[in-house]
Amino acid sequence: MRDDNCIFCKIAGGDIPTNAIYEDNDYKVILDMSPATRGHALILPKEHYKNIYEMPEERVAGAFRLAGKMAQTMTDKLGADGFNIVQNNNEIAGQTVFHFHIHLIPRYEGDGQVVGWRPGESTPEELSKIKDLFG
Ligand code: 5GP
Ligand code: ZN
Q1: Strand ordering across the sheet containing 27-31
Q2: Distance from residue 7's CA to the centre of ligand 1 (Å)
Q3: How far is the CA of 106 from the centre of ligand 2 (A)?
Q4: Could you read off the pLDDT tens digit of each residue along the chain, which spans 135 residues?
Q5: Active site residues
Q6: For the whole prediction, is pTM greater than 0.85?
Q7: Assigned domain for 20 exists
Q8: Domain span at residue 13?
Q9: What is the CATH number of the domain that holds 19?
Q10: Total domain count, the chain
């Protein structure tokens, strides 16, 4: 499955040259062209899925398994001090390229980057109601 208008399909399929740091039958890991930090990379499945909701469970599992391995390898090779794994779905969550991808962001002491959210507030009642949604 492939979308001819999708930039990540073209990159994952090899039609557009890129700096890949890992590749297998199902995934390609490329360096982000606007890196948050040195070595910021993206895991791309070779098949086109818009987001995590559309991706089969096994592909999701494989992508996150690979994220775990890449975190280890990249931390070692780049000399990182920590690591963020980020995955955005839909515009409201910050997704700008609508082909599933996982951000691999090595972190370095003093890198000055911000990856996160503003902590909010809740109540025990509200937390309990949310928990109840899950049975
Ligand atoms: P999103 O905001 O969708 O989670 O992340 C999209 C990411 O893809 C951004 O970090 C952006 O810099 C990166 N990106 C967009 N287009 C290209 C491209 O053509 N090549 C590469 N290497 N990265 C890209
Ligand atoms: Zn695509």
Answers
A1: 20-23, 27-31, 41-45, 102-107, 82-86
A2: 9
A3: 25
A4: 889 999 999 999 999 999 999 999 999 999 999 999 999 999 999 999 999 999 999 999 999 999 999 999 999 999 999 999 999 999 999 999 999 999 999 999 999 999 999 999 999 999 999 999 999
A5: 101
A6: yes
A7: yes
A8: 7-133
A9: 3.30.428.10
A10: 1
